[in-house]
């Protein structure tokens, strides 16, 4: 799609054409006044903004890093996975773009509705299977002849990888991925209507000498409830997750049990170092506060309250009278 913003060279050429008479300014104004029409394909509805696509790319960049770590540990060989592209297209177009026989992992992401599809190129899938069974990681495409044992091993390998998908989405929403189906023929799989818009995240995957693609297909209906959370404003506002009610309650209990030093200050006095060095038992120091003035009660070293001295059960005590205002606190 051509950009609507003119480059500096285009602007210079336009001004030159007007100044030399090659282009009439009135004709240019007339052309600008005409309504510009853009072709829109309703079968290829664009339901996600560029901003939301960038957020999805960011999430799956993290997923790719987590998958790299997971498969490296499981297969004990060189693994590199990165996001190649993130596109929105009709579901039918996605199905036509993948091999006729391939590895299809279908899973739910509760509490979101709908299902997500992870398509793994057979070259990659068999290289992984070969490594799990103790081989060198060579790829032999025999997708139509999967044994029950190979089927089970492969589905278990990808099912465990979904824990990484949960972690990748934690910054947006807490999901619980759960494998629901394992298929090899896309024609037997109809998750949404053919014209439904889906997000396709293509992960470029390298396993030893074998390379291929892992494609994640997320229908619009799955992401629809959380589309507002995919904006830049949400990312900026949600650097930290909001604490849960039970976390807030536990924090409040801990704060209530915290001990703070409380000081009731009777007054102050200034004396010279000479007088201080000559102080003896029984000497009296005159304070600068009158006995009819309230005491200052400090929490730590911050003045917070005023009080008056007294006794409770023959013990010295201080009765809180009032709370110091902000101005008094700042002035101390």
UniProtKB/TrEMBL annotation:
Localisation per UniProt entry: Bacterial flagellum basal body; Cell membrane
Leader sequence residues: none
Keyword Cell membrane in record: yes
Keyword Membrane: yes
Keywords: Bacterial flagellum, Cell membrane, Cell projection, Chemotaxis, Cilium, Flagellar rotation, Flagellum, Membrane
Membrane-topology descriptor: Peripheral membrane protein
Segments forming domain Flagellar motor switch protein FliN-like C-terminal: 254-323
Gene3D superfamilies noted in UniProt: CheC-like, SpoA-like
Entry similarity comment: Belongs to the FliM family.
PANTHER family tied to this protein: FLAGELLAR MOTOR SWITCH PROTEIN FLIM, YOP PROTEINS TRANSLOCATION PROTEIN Q
Protein name: Flagellar motor switch protein FliM
């Amino acid at each position: 799609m051509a950009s609507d913003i003119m480059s500096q060279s285009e602007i210079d050429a336009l001004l030159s054409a007007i100044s030399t008479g090659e282009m009439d300014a009135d004709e240019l104004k007339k052309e600008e006044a005409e309504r510009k029409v853009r072709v829109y394909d309703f079968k290829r509805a664009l339901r996600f903004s560029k901003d939301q696509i960038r957020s999805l790319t960011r999430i799956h960049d993290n997923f790719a890093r987590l998958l790299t770590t997971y498969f490296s540990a499981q297969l004990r060989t060189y693994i590199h996975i990165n996001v190649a592209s993130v596109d929105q297209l009709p579901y039918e177009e996605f199905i036509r773009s993948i091999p006729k026989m391939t590895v299809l992992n279908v899973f739910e992401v509760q509490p979101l509705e709908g299902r997500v599809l992870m398509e793994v190129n057979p070259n990659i899938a068999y290289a992984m299977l070969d490594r799990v069974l103790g081989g060198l990681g060579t790829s032999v495409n025999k997708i139509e002849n999967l044994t029950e044992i190979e089927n089970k091993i492969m589905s278990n390998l990808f099912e465990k990888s979904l824990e990484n998908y949960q972690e990748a989405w934690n910054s947006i929403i807490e999901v619980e991925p759960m494998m629901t189906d394992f298929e090899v023929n896309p024609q037997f799989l109809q998750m949404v209507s053919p014209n439904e818009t889906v997000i396709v995240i293509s992960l470029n995957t390298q396993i030893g000498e074998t390379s291929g693609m892992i494609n994640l297909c997320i229908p619009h209906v799955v992401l629809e409830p959380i589309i507002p959370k995919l904006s830049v404003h949400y990312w900026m506002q949600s650097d930290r997750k909001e604490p849960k009610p039970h976390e807030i309650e536990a924090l409040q209990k801990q704060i209530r049990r915290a001990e703070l030093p409380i000081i009731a200050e009777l007054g102050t006095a200034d004396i010279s170092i000479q007088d201080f060095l000559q102080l003896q038992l029984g000497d009296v120091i005159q304070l600068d506060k009158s006995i009819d003035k309230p005491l200052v009660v400090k929490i730590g070293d911050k003045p917070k309250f005023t009080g008056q001295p007294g006794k409770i059960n023959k013990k010295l005590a201080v009765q809180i009278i009032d709370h110091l205002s902000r101005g008094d606190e700042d002035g101390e």
